[in-house]
Amino acid sequence: MAKVTIYPVGNGDSILQEFNDGRLLLLDYYDIKDPDDPNDKRIDLPNELRAVLAEKNREGFDVVAFTHADDDHVHGLEDFFWLDHASKYQGEGRVRITELWVPALFILEEGLTGSARVLRQEARHRLKKDYGIRVFSKPSELDDWLREQGISPESRSGRITHAGKCVPGFNAIKGQVDIFVHSPFSFRSEDDAERNGASLVLHSTFFESGHESRFMFGADAEHEVWNDIVWISKKKGNEKRLDWDGFKISHHCSHDALSAEKGTDKTVPDEKIDKLFGRGAQGALLISSSDPIPSEDTDQPPHRQAAAYYKDVASDKGGEFIVTMENPSQQDPKPTVIEVGPYGLKHNQRSGVAIGAAAIVTKPSPRMG
Fold first, then answer.
1. CA-CA distance, 50 to 82, in Å (whole number)?
2. Could you give the CA distance from residue 57 to residue 72 in angstroms, rounded to a whole number?
3. What three-state secondary structure class fits 62?
4. pLDDT of residue 103
5. Mind spelling out the 3-state secondary structure of 168-200?
6. Is the Cα torsion angle 301, 305, 308, 313 positive or negative in sign?
7. Helices in the chain by DSSP H: which ranges?
8. Does residue 166 contact residue 131 with C-beta atoms inside 8 Å?
9. Distance from CA of residue 63 to its chain's centroid?
10. What confidence category does residue 235 fall into, taking pLDDT thresholds of 50, 70 and 90?
11. Domains in the chain, ordered, with CATH?
12. DSSP type of residue 157
């Protein structure tokens, strides 16, 4: 049975997708827990992931995807993963990456520091050597960069996946999942591109005994990008890729993922985005990978106004709005585990024990008119 696990890492992302053929896809990595602070309730991510791999007798992940270069999606990776480009990031106990996924902007961006810079060097190394990497979008600057390395852009075309396409190697037979790329668009990865606008947004369709369950992974996409996604998906005949049973909402419950305006009590989303959330199935799950929702106004996410909108969506659909650092409680947050079965998605609030009668089951969503 396929499974999606969203880890409570604070205002950051780390998500594990497990597929029916045994492949593992880790989406982002954020390890900033202070082990000496008893009040730090964030999960010990390295130990948690190592335990998953040990249970499966694995040395690494089939895919590790990084949505963009912000620290809350990459922090600490250089201490955890085996990286091929430099010997100091190698050694016993490090976790292997069979295929690395990054948006094109990750290859191109200059001035990166810390974990993001280390990952950029690994991505560049793999792309130059032509192995173990997939790049999303192909702005003209990427062709220019390849030529500067003495590499023909055409020779790397098989390693590029554009928005509006499915990732090769995944389908109803291989893994019983297809992975559709909503973003980044090439035009958002060009000069002066903004990371959130060029982050990797994926839509996974899980096939289980004739049933399809759809899960949107929103990265840190903001409202301008979602407007583009909805408009282009409809224009290109990809409306079914807007349907969802589970939605990892964008940018840690920031109002910017819905609208430029925060609102007083509730964020009013842009019209296209409101229609996108209207495509959710009955019993749908909305997950905010974030700190607890505050009761007061804050400059940084999560924003209570955005949460009010998401709670209303969940309520209207008889579903659930889940905050990772509140699940099942603020005092003891656990991984949010969602199993993908023949009747849809099942969320187990107790995260790891047998799912009982309270499990939520979703059904395919109707398409909006």
1. 13
2. 28
3. strand
4. 97
5. CCCECCCECEEEEEEECCHHHHCCCCCCHHHCC
6. negative
7. 45-55, 104-108, 114-129, 140-148, 223-235, 271-278, 304-316
8. no
9. 13
10. very high
11. 2-348 (3.60.15.10)
12. G
